[in-house]
Design brief:
The protein has about 500 residues and is mainly alpha-helical. The chain has 19 helices and three strands.
Length: about 500
């Protein structure tokens, strides 16, 4: 630590290896804490290290990083442990901009964005919401020398128009302190949404999820109320840093009881509401950990087996806690969920409603993942198109559900890749250049077979092993097909995924 503090005001290119390693590892830890895949964390660390003339070899797991940095003469090893697992898609986006800002500030080309001024101005305008003990910063991070928030972060950088390649002329030296200032602004940035909006997002996503599973207006209303109450409890307890598995189980219990209670209350005035005994399943789907599931599958596709397995185990642990809690509620109130009742609807009306509810479901999950509204809306459009396509080919082409999940994920991946490519070629403004993972994961979370998983655990609790195995196999096949579809989309559109080099 003393070596880092001694070099805080030196140019990062002239600082010692410990100071450079502190930047590399801290950036990797922030990216990992945002919930992104380990392969992306390693890629980001490699790019930051290369700009400073350092080689880094990192082992990245679900909650820890062990990185060895070398400058050809010395070697420094750092280990970072994260206290918990979370998702913050805004931070994933900010870390891409930070990496490009650092590259351009050191006289190199940006990697994630082609526009020279995109990341420079973006990072320069970040506000400081909490000051760290390492590099206290002003309220507005501005120019490296003048503190001007509207100026480029490094003097000598020639701002280019959107879509132009990066070109720099004698950039001013960036100090280690200034780099940590930017990381401080990213790390201590407050959550974008209030508790009320998070509750609304969970309620909207679960009500939409319920319709896509075949539920009607009564089921959607019960899921809306139950999910909102469950998310309220989950947000409050997560804010107190309580155990995730306990919080998940408690939130599911509350969501299920509130959903069932609302139906019983409605049944006093409308007896037909009592027949909707599956609505409470839709109310608990806000706890589905889609990010670890998808990023784990993508890690395995990139041969990062250990991280992929850890994420898959974490996904299974959360799902087990949630489904066991839901089964306990069903056992207490003597419910036997038999699925949602079928009802007839005009095919064109169903198509439109599927698109609308898929949009709402993806938007809700994006808000829960802390996506900015522009990012959430782009993801929602992609998810609405992909999920509507998936459901339509099931209905009209009689496509197996597993194959439809694969095709839906593939469609979402291709749409997200097309969006990113359009941004890189200047067809879309640079501020819409969101990371693909922040668009694809929310768009296919609504395809995760939460209903199948619950049915499997329910029948296990009833000691009906035959039915339980049937639902387990269905769920596993769909879960496996989702990341495979996304991985194939990346292989088709990304050269770095096509070759193991």
């Amino acid at each position: 630590m003393d070596d880092v503090v001694a070099d805080l005001d030196k140019s990062v290119t002239e600082a010692g290896l410990p100071a450079k390693a502190s930047v590399i590892v801290r950036a990797g830890a922030l990216d990992l804490a945002s919930g992104t895949g380990s392969f992306r964390v390693r890629e980001l660390m490699d790019r930051i290290a290369a700009t400073m003339g350092v080689y880094v070899r990192a082992d990245v797991n679900l909650t820890d990083i062990e990185a060895s940095c070398s400058d050809g003469t010395y070697r420094v090893t750092e280990v970072v442990d994260l206290p918990t697992v979370g998702v913050n898609t805004e931070r994933i986006w900010l870390m891409e901009h930070f990496t490009d800002w650092l590259s351009v500030s050191l006289g190199r080309r940006g990697t994630y964005h082609r526009a020279a001024d995109a990341s420079q101005n973006f990072i320069a305008r970040l506000t400081n919401e909490k000051k760290s003990s390492i590099a206290p910063i002003p309220d507005i991070i501005g120019d490296a020398d003048r503190g001007d928030a509207s100026a480029p972060a490094a003097e000598g950088c020639n701002p280019a128009q959107p879509g132009q390649s990066v070109r720099t002329v004698r950039p001013a030296p960036v100090t280690v302190r200034q780099i940590h200032e930017r990381l401080d602004a990213i790390e201590y940035r407050h959550h974008l949404y209030s508790l009320a909006l998070q509750v609304l997002a969970a309620a909207v996503s679960c009500a939409s999820f319920t319709f896509l599973l075949g539920g009607g207006p009564i089921d959607m209303a019960a899921a809306f109320i139950g999910a909102g109450c469950g998310q309220f409890v989950r947000s409050r307890l997560n804010g107190r840093h309580m155990n995730q598995f306990f919080v998940t189980a408690l939130a599911v219990v509350i969501a299920a009881f509130v959903s069932i209670g609302s139906l019983r209350l409605l049944g006093m005035f409308y007896p037909a509401a009592l027949a909707h005994d599956t609505a409470y399943i839709g109310a608990i789907l806000f706890v589905v950990p889609g990010f670890p599931l998808i990023t784990g599958g993508l890690d395995i596709a990139k041969l990062d087996i250990s991280s992929g397995v850890q994420r898959a185990v974490y996904f299974l642990a959360i799902i087990t806690a949630a489904t066991l809690a839901a089964w306990a509620v069903a056992d207490v109130v003597h419910l036997t969920p038999g699925g949602f009742a079928e009802f007839s609807m005009n095919p064109w009306l169903r198509l439109i409603l599927r698109f609308i509810t898929a949009f709402g479901g993806v938007w809700g999950f994006s808000v829960l993942f802390n996506s900015p509204q522009r990012m959430a809306c782009v993801a929602a459009v992609i998810g609405a198109l992909a999920d509507t396509f998936r459901l339509e080919i099931i209905d009209y082409w009689h496509t197996p559900i597993e194959a439809a999940a694969f095709l839906g994920a593939l469609a979402a991946g291709l749409l997200a890749s097309a969006w990113r490519i359009a941004v890189r070629h200047g067809l879309i403004e640079p501020q819409y250049g969101f990371p693909r993972i922040t668009l694809t994961v929310p768009s296919i979370v609504i395809m995760v077979p939460g209903l199948y998983m619950y049915q499997a655990v329910y029948y296990l609790g009833q000691l009906n092993s035959g039915a339980a195995l049937n639902w387990i196999f269905r769920a596993v096949l769909v879960v496996v097909c989702l990341p495979i579809g996304l991985a194939l989309a990346r292989i088709l559109t990304d050269r770095s995924w096509r070759y193991d080099v």
